[in-house]
Amino acid sequence: MIEALAAELAQWGPGLFLKTSVWLYPLVNALHILAIGAVLTSVLLMDASVLGFWGRSPGQQAVIALLRPVTIFALVLALASGFLLFSVRPVDYIANPVFRLKLVLLALALVNALIFLAFSPQSILRKPAAALSAVLWLGVLVAGRFVGFLD
User: Fold this and answer.
1) In the chain, where does DSSP find H-type helix?
2) Could you give the CA distance from residue 121 to residue 105 in angstroms, rounded to a whole number?
3) Could you give the angle at the alpha carbon of 45 between the alpha carbons of 72 and 77, nearest 5°?
4) End-to-end distance of the chain based on CA atoms, in angstroms?
5) Taking the CB of residue 116, how many other CB atoms lie within 10 A of it?
6) Nearest alpha-carbon partner for 32 in 72, 70, 76, 69
7) Per residue in 6-45, pLDDT tens?
């Protein structure tokens, strides 16, 4: 079923155009890297704040309030650009175990983020969730970098 959808996606017009464009693929790839960098930076700064790496100043809630919109915007860009890059070779990516691992880690990181939102600022579960967040997002990064090297 997933392989059939991937084969269908391989015929998608924007993916075919991206595959043949000399300029567009590198630009979308650069956008993807930029967005991933913004997601990771903002997430890791929020996680570090929750874990108390900076003491109480400037305050966890202020850091989170400042960085959460950046994270959401960058995540949307990363997902959109990642989907475009995926559409160039969907059958190959689906067959790649590291790509599948990246998707699992990404899903776990997103679920962890949603669970974190349910915690009150005083919850003792915030620190383990922040530590898990850092591990999962760094795992997404590492898996993503290995995708291109394990074709």
Assistant:
1) 2-9, 13-20, 24-50, 60-86, 90-95, 97-118, 126-147
2) 25
3) 25
4) 22
5) 20
6) 76
7) 888 788 888 888 888 889 999 999 999 999 999 999 999 9
